[in-house]
Amino acid sequence: MTKKVHQMSIKFMFVFVFLLSTCKGFDELELLLSVKASINDQSKSLANWNSSISFCKWNGITCFDSSHVSKIDLPGKNLSGKIPDSIFRFPYIQSIDLSNNQLFGDIPQNLSSCYPLRYLNLSSNNLTGIIPSGQYLPFLETLDLSNNMLSGQIPENIGLFSGLKVLDFGGNALFGNIPNSVTNMTSLEYFTLASNQLSGEIPRNLGLMKSLKWIYLGYNNFSGEIPKEIGELIYLNHLDLVYNNLTGKIPSSFGNLTNLEYLFLYFNKLTGRIPNSIFNLKKLVSLDLSDNSLFGEISENFINFQNLEVLHLFSNNFSGKIPNALSYLPHLKVLQLWSNRLSGEIPKDLGKFNNLSVLDLSTNNLTGKIPENLCASKVLFKLILFSNSLEGEIPGSLSFCKSLQRVRIQQNRLSGEMPPGFTTLPLVYFLDISSNYLSGRIDNREWDMPQLQMLSLARNGLFGPLPRSFGSGKLENLDLSGNSFSGRIPESFGEFSELIELKISESQLSGQTPYQLYCRKLVVLNLSHNHLTGEIPVSMSEMPVLGAFLAINSTAVVGNDLCGGEKNDRFTTLRWELVVASGKSVLNKNSKVFLAKDIGSISDSRWMEYWNKLCKIDHPNVVKMLAMCRSEKGGILVYEYIHEGKDLSEVFGCLNWDRRIKVAVGIARAIKYLHCSCSPCVIVGDITPRKIMVDEKGEAHLRLSLPGINSCSDSKFFNSSAYVAPETKGSKDDLLTEKSDIYGFGLLLIELLTGKSWADTELGIRDSIVEWARYCYSDCHLEMWVDTMIKNDQTCTAGDPEARPCAIDLVKNLDSVVRSSSNCVFSGFKLF
Ligand SMILES: *[C@@H]1O[C@H](CO)[C@@H](O)[C@H](O)[C@H]1NC(C)=O
Ligand SMILES: *[C@@H]1O[C@H](CO)[C@@H](O)[C@H](O)[C@H]1NC(C)=O
Ligand SMILES: *[C@@H]1O[C@H](CO)[C@@H](O)[C@H](O)[C@H]1NC(C)=O
Ligand SMILES: *[C@@H]1O[C@H](CO)[C@@H](O)[C@H](O)[C@H]1NC(C)=O
Ligand SMILES: *[C@@H]1O[C@H](CO)[C@@H](O)[C@H](O)[C@H]1NC(C)=O
Ligand SMILES: *[C@@H]1O[C@H](CO)[C@@H](O)[C@H](O)[C@H]1NC(C)=O
Ligand SMILES: *[C@@H]1O[C@H](CO)[C@@H](O)[C@H](O)[C@H]1NC(C)=O
Ligand SMILES: *[C@@H]1O[C@H](CO)[C@@H](O)[C@H](O)[C@H]1NC(C)=O
Ligand SMILES: *[C@@H]1O[C@H](CO)[C@@H](O)[C@H](O)[C@H]1NC(C)=O
Ligand SMILES: *[C@@H]1O[C@H](CO)[C@@H](O)[C@H](O)[C@H]1NC(C)=O
Ligand SMILES: *[C@@H]1O[C@H](CO)[C@@H](O)[C@H](O)[C@H]1NC(C)=O
Ligand SMILES: *[C@@H]1O[C@H](CO)[C@@H](O)[C@H](O)[C@H]1NC(C)=O
Q1: What is the pLDDT of residue 292?
Q2: Among 100, 549, 572, 591, which is most exposed with the fewest C-beta within 10 angstroms?
Q3: pLDDT value for 812
Q4: Alpha carbon nearest to ligand 1 atom 7, residue
Q5: Does Isomerase show up as a keyword for this record (predicted)?
Q6: Could you tell me the distance, in angstroms and rounded to a whole number, from the CA of residue 208 to the centre of ligand 12?
């Protein structure tokens, strides 16, 4: 005891002497004024930093002994400019918090002048350079440098920060290995290196850092096996190793982590079975092992996880039945087991005693009926069971599941009629029951689904007349194809003002196509293979998008008696005028012709100006415009010929990862060029796969179209595309901006990364990428963002064609960019 006190007093003496020797001559007032002078204080947070009052009363300043600055507390004060060195020169300082500002520059290496510092939080700025050395700050307990742009390796002597309890370097650009000396930090409780480019193995001697409670090493490039020594960290509460390149099995030593509540190992290359010892972890709240190559059966021992709320085992190779045990986990909220090889029936009590809000068992080999009690929680909002072999009727109980929002039960063997209340669910916006064996009429039931945007009843055995309405003013996609509907297409379908896609092919419809089908936003109309008669109504060819489409492509109406598509006079009788871009006089058979959509009032001189500007664009990822045929009613655009060029939407399924990334990078380059190098900036408007040509080398080319720039109603034309950012939807006065392009690009990325249409994407990836794209574009740097992708492009093309890790890298980069951008909303999203 006395010995300890004695040691401490020596330590304090030392500090004292040290302070006397190094700090003499510093005037803290002068230092503070120099801090103020060198920081850009937009929000006037330092307004009372005025020598006429004592600096101990200044905003953000706390004093020790009424005379020395001990604490500088200025988080989120909108401070910008270079981080002042003087802030690190207060001899009595214990705590500095400048987090969440816009400071840039390097953190000084030599922090000996703030020797007593215990808390340093510089997170969420734009700091560069390397991690400062630990040797000068022996008392530091908290070091938060997360979400900056720090680079280089973690210093070998990081262990000199031997008193640290909290270390957060997440969201930077650090590379190299974790130095062995980290194990010197035996008091460390919170350890985050997530979202950097660190590699090598996770050090085995992490097992020596016995105080660890939180480990976040996700979103890096760690390889090798998970060290079994992690199982010795008995205080561990969170373990997150996601998005790495870890191989081997889940160590059975994890069974000793009895305080663990969160175990996240998703998106690695783990194999083997779930070790039985895991079922010792009775405190687990969330278990995510998805996107690995784990196999074996899912054990009934899951019954041990009585606190479990989230279970993600999707995208693995699990087989056998879904254990009954899952039905008896009272807190289970989210259960996602999709894309495995599960068979047998869904446990019949699933949902009954749980608290389910999300259930996704899609793409397995499940049989039997959909259990009655899935919605017993009354909070189920996602029910995703598609691509199984489920049979029987849709349970009547789902009619009362008023919380449902997204229901995808297509591609099963469901039969019978839809239960009565199933079409009056108030919150459902996405309902896909296609490719089942449903029967019965749909016109004699109540449809009241005010939120419905997407409805597919395609490929069932439904019959009878079509209903007048589905009780939604928001319907965008309606697919009723492949049934036996009869009678006319109700005129009221013309009132679906938001409709983008209407498909009622392969049915028994007859009569005339109603002229009311004048939906300004309609992009896809397929009424083929019915018994419709008569001319295509004039109103249809006036639809901004469809009119042009019908004039050159009649497949949409093939199989009917319609002839309007072939001889649409409106286009043939127009007087055409050829406008060739200057310097591009040659039009030959290699020129690719596209029909322009509504190009507005052509005599407008601004329009000509815009056209001329587009013609001057010369970028390898933008299709050159050569000429335009125009009349007072419409126009045809002539583009350069892309050898072997195919629409991205056509070739999408055949693109391997390399090529997908090449497309993403190409389009990113095109957008960057159009936004940043063209003056004024060119807005693409709607970045859809249909606008992208992929040539034989896999290079992507963006095809610009001509917006009618002369009036609001013309700019509204773009609203026809689902890819246009929501902020441009609905309000006709909103013009398109760079942000809406980035939003469109975000959606395109989702398709490229997941191989699925964004509308099909689960797990909030759509929201998060799009959020990111939307909020970050202006504050962050397209430059940086494109460059990280281009960097990966190079590493990718060298790799093997199946190289899925390339996509991981791309995702990781998106992620780290998201995290390192101080103004961006990051919600910890997760792909696939
Ligand atoms: C932050 O500073 C920027 C300029 O750097 C200014 O435009 C913005 O309004 C400020 N925000 C707040 C909340 O003061
Ligand atoms: C400091 O405060 C005094 C009195 O409140 C005021 O007159 C003076 O202008 C202030 N000085 C600065 C630099 O803001
Ligand atoms: C650092 O500051 C940020 C933002 O002000 C805060 O969210 C975070 O918790 C702080 N870090 C630590 C370790 O206290
Ligand atoms: C760090 O700074 C202190 C005081 O400014 C000085 O005495 C010391 O030599 C410096 N250390 C290094 C390695 O430069
Ligand atoms: C962040 O730092 C980078 C590199 O120093 C710089 O290019 C960029 O403009 C900075 N961004 C902000 C918002 O300060
Ligand atoms: C480990 O910490 C001690 C102080 O506790 C320090 O003297 C030593 O140099 C550190 N070693 C390394 C490798 O960082
Ligand atoms: C990841 O680490 C491996 C070595 O383990 C290395 O070959 C590869 O280039 C790294 N990838 C990235 C993107 O840093
Ligand atoms: C992933 O790990 C494997 C085997 O350890 C290695 O060959 C490969 O280069 C790693 N890939 C990346 C992108 O790190
Ligand atoms: C758990 O720890 C004990 C001793 O602390 C050890 O004997 C046992 O092997 C460990 N269990 C596992 C599964 O590693
Ligand atoms: C899944 O398991 C089957 C049979 O055990 C095996 O043939 C297949 O390769 C596995 N797939 C993956 C992706 O591991
Ligand atoms: C699904 O199960 C059936 C038998 O129930 C079997 O014939 C079929 O091969 C299974 N499919 C897959 C993909 O495992
Ligand atoms: C019309 O579209 C179909 C399918 O999209 C395509 O196969 C066909 O070639 C097109 N016809 C013309 C004349 O462009």
Answers
A1: 95
A2: 572
A3: 43
A4: 42
A5: no
A6: 66
User: Per CATH, which fold does 646-823 belong to?
Assistant: Transferase(Phosphotransferase); domain 1 (1.10.510)
- CA distances to 375, 381, 400, 432 from 419, in Å: 15, 18, 10, 15
Which of 636 and 104 is assigned the larger pLDDT? Answer: 104
Would the CB of 295 count as within 6 Å of ligand 10?
yes
> Mean of the pLDDT values across residues 312-318?
95
Can you name the residues that pair with 592 across neighbouring β-strands? 639
Best residue among 112, 114, 137, 157 to mutate for probing ligand 4's pocket (most ligand atoms within 8 Å of CB) is: 112
Rounded distance from Cα 223 to ligand 7 centre (Å): 9
Pocket of ligand 1 (CB under 6 A): 42-43, 78, 80
Task: Say whether 646-823 and 436-572 share the same fold.
Answer: no
pLDDT score at 383: 96
CA of 305 to the centre of ligand 9 (A): 20
Tell me how far the alpha carbon of residue 404 is from its chain's centroid.
23
101 lines ligand 5 (CB under 6 A): no
Give the pair of three-digit tokens for residue 533: 């008669």
Got the DSSP string for 452-470? --EEE--SSEEEEPPPS--
> In this model, does residue 580 exceed pLDDT 90?
no
**Which has the closest alpha carbon to 668: 716, 620, 617, 631?**
620
Q: Which residues form the pocket of ligand 2, taking CB atoms under 6 Å from any ligand atom?
A: 50, 52
Q: What is the mean pLDDT of residues 98-102?
A: 96
Q: Ligand 8 pocket: which of 221, 245, 796 to mutate (most atoms <8 Å of CB)?
A: 245
> How far, in Å, CA of 496 to CA of 489, rounded?
13
Tokens of 99: 């987090």
**Apex 288 CA angle, 287 and 291, nearest 5:** 160
Cα of 187 from ligand 6 centre, angstroms: 12
Calculate how far, in angstroms, residue 21's C-alpha sits from the geometric centre of ligand 5. Answer: 37
Checking phi first, is residue 81 left (phi over 0); if not, alpha (psi -120 to 50) or beta?
left
Spatial distance between the Cα atoms of 63 and 56, rounded to a whole number of angstroms: 5
- Does 2-88 carry CATH code 2.40.160.20? no
Domain boundaries along the sequence of the chain: 2-88, 436-572, 573-640, 646-823
Q: How many C-beta atoms lie closer than 10 Å to residue 424's C-beta?
A: 16
Separation of CA 773 and ligand 1 centre (Å):
21
Nearest residue (CA) to ligand 1, atom 12: 43
Residue written as token pair 């784990």 = 294
- pLDDT per residue over 123-133, tens digit each? 999 999 999 98
Residue 566 Cβ inside 6 Å of ligand 12? The answer reads: no
Name which residue leads in pLDDT, 694 or 775: 694
Residue nearest to atom 3 of ligand 9 (CA): 256
Residues 6+ apart with CB under 8 A from 167: 143, 161, 185, 188, 190, 191, 192
pLDDT averaged over the chain? Answer: 77
Structure-block tokens of residue 427: 């919150």
Query: From ligand 5's centre to the CA of 125, what distance in Å?
Result: 9
> What pLDDT score was predicted for residue 498?
83
Residue range 232-263, pLDDT digits in tens: 999 999 999 998 999 999 999 999 999 999 99
Task: Give, rounded to a whole angstrom, the gap between the first and last alpha carbons of the chain.
Answer: 57
Span from the CA of 258 to the centroid of ligand 9 (angstroms): 11
Q: Which residue has the tokens 């005339």?
A: 512
Residue located nearest, by CA, to atom 14 of ligand 6:
159
Q: How far is CA 770 from the centre of its chain?
A: 6
pTM: 0.71
CATH superfamily of 436-572: Ribonuclease Inhibitor (3.80.10.10)
> Which tokens hold the place of 502?
């209407």
